[in-house]
Design brief:
Jelly Rolls; 10 helices; 26% helix; alpha+beta; Phage tail protein beta-alpha-beta fold; 3 domains; 19-stranded mixed beta sheet
Length: 400
Amino acid sequence: MIPRKRLFELLSDYVAERISLPDLDILIAYLKQAESNHDLYLVIDEIWKGLETDKPLLISSGHLYDSILNDPRIKKTTDDDRLTTNMKRKNTRLWWYKSMAASLFIGIALYLLFLPVGHKPESHTEQLVRIMPGGKKATLTLANGQTIDLTGASAGQIAEESGVAIRKTKNGQLIYWEDAAPTNQGDKIGINKIVTPKGGEYQIVLPDGTKVWLNAASALSYPSRFSGDTREVNLQGEAYFEVTKGKPFIVVADHQRIDVLGTKFNVSAYQDDKQRITSLLEGAVRVTNAANRSMLLKPGEQAAVVPDKTQIDLTTFSPEEVLGWKNGYFTFNNTPIKSVMKIIARWYDIDIFYEGDAINKVNFGGTISRFDRLEKLLNTISLTGSVKFRVEGRRVVVMI
């Protein structure tokens, strides 16, 4: 009988693809001889409780056996090869993940291993290249037309408009700071615009203190100083808002308007998506579509606007799934693979193509770090056995 702590180590090393062949032999021998799976369930539950997610883990011991007992490293490796391979691994083995990233990888890998038996992990990505994840990249356009590359700009004050200092912090935030009244009261308050490319994200603190997290391939337009009776911004793409209390705050997005009074919410309004979705975490917002239909949201509710429809659909949502991008994760819950790959494409700045008529029937669920190389992310998804990938430069082909 293997102590539970040792079993935890073996399973963790196995799903993280760092297990040595002698340890794999030990794990297989244990599974073949075990009369009860009680310890196995406890270990898996222990790993899962360490994750910051509420996704269910559907466990079947038979599926675990199928994954480990049929491991090709055992089937295809001779005793002599095992010794040589193990010596190489001892010299070259790397720890891929640290702290929470390690727990998240183990959790998603376990989640994927326990899919129905018909889904056998057989393929990793082919022709892999090192495509790195996105990061803090954005371009700021001032009211006078001047363009500033925020990615390369040094920390400190980068511009000033109408008595408002525009600063970039050391950790890559853009902050508007009202130092004084406008130097010329006759000057019109100009509109600034921040744009993130594919593979970029940025955080902005607006002149009123409102915090905005801008996702990849998105744009936010706003005045350098809020005046008048309302505070209005224009959004393309996706952003999460933490709005300070004060005058009514309005977000104008594609085919919708969102009226806010001090709240936290997420807006996804990409033009290539079928729906424009507003998800409310705190406070209250009113969503109005192009047909002038409106709906007042309560915390935990989500409004979906479809450009060609007059109605607004109301549902509840999972904060972990909606805000995963802001917190550094991709979180999916039985999401169609095409929707999954569209989100991934925006972050890694890649083009996606599909092969296979059954691709529309494939769904995916799990939580993965947004800061892994593309190779690792695709390998994790391919563990389902439902899809495999071929990478050609920045072109990724998804195959059944």
